[in-house]
Amino acid sequence: MGGHRKIILDPHRGFIIEAIQQTPHLTLHGLKDLPGERDIFVSHNAVWAFLRREGLSFKKTLFGLEQARVDVVRKRRRWQSFMEQLNPKHLVFIGETWIKTRMAPLRGWGKRGKHLHGFAPHGRWNTMTFIAALRYDDQLKLSLG
Questions:
Q1: Closest by alpha carbon to 65, among 101, 28, 25, 90?
Q2: In the chain, which end has fewer C-beta atoms inside a 10 angstrom radius, N or C?
Q3: Domain containing 118: what range?
Q4: Are residues 43 and 70 part of one domain?
Q5: Whether 144 contacts 96, CB under 8 Å
Q6: pTM, full prediction
Q7: pLDDT digits (tens, 9 = 90+) for 9-28
Q8: CA–centroid distance for 87 within its chain
């Protein structure tokens, strides 16, 4: 009756924390199966208690996927420096794009009090099509189709 129970996951702390850092969107079920790779079988409650002791909570703030790509970051910086040389009166931009958004993981484990940033396309969980035209007059106008 009563007494102190040995925390079974503490010897595997490094392994679990590294797995979370590599794949922060692992669900509780996925994390429960990780110790199984080391022949240790635990309950959901044991994993949940371990994560709480580590100060982790399941959350994520989504950003545009392209913001994580090195080539896009480089091109955006180059474009921003080139924009000062452009005369906006001579430009018309028409663009069309689409994306399927339903496959992005919504949550991940992160330290309590710290933001966890994930990447996913913007919008509701479906196929989105966006068509836009942008031109310069005396006032900047945006036409959406």
A1: 101
A2: N
A3: 58-145
A4: no
A5: no
A6: 0.44
A7: 888 888 888 888 888 888 88
A8: 36
**132 shares its domain with 70:** yes
The number of angstroms, rounded, from the C-alpha of 108 to the middle of its chain's C-alpha atoms is: 8
On whether both 73 and 130 belong to a single domain, the answer is yes
Which amino acid type is present at position 83? M
Q: How many CA atoms lie within 13 A of 13 on its CB side?
A: 11
The contacts of residue 26 (CB under 8 Å, 6+ apart) are: 19, 20, 34, 108, 109
List pLDDT tens digits, range 31-46: 888 767 777 778 888 8
Q: How far is CA 3 from CA 6, 7, 50, in A?
A: 10, 13, 19
Q: Which two tokens stand for residue 32?
A: 């429960």
Q: Are residues 27 and 97 in the same domain?
A: no
When divided into structural domains, the chain yields a total of: 2
DSSP, residue by residue, 10-42: GGGHHHHHHHHHH-TT--HHHHHHTGGGGT---
90 and 25 housed in the same domain:
no
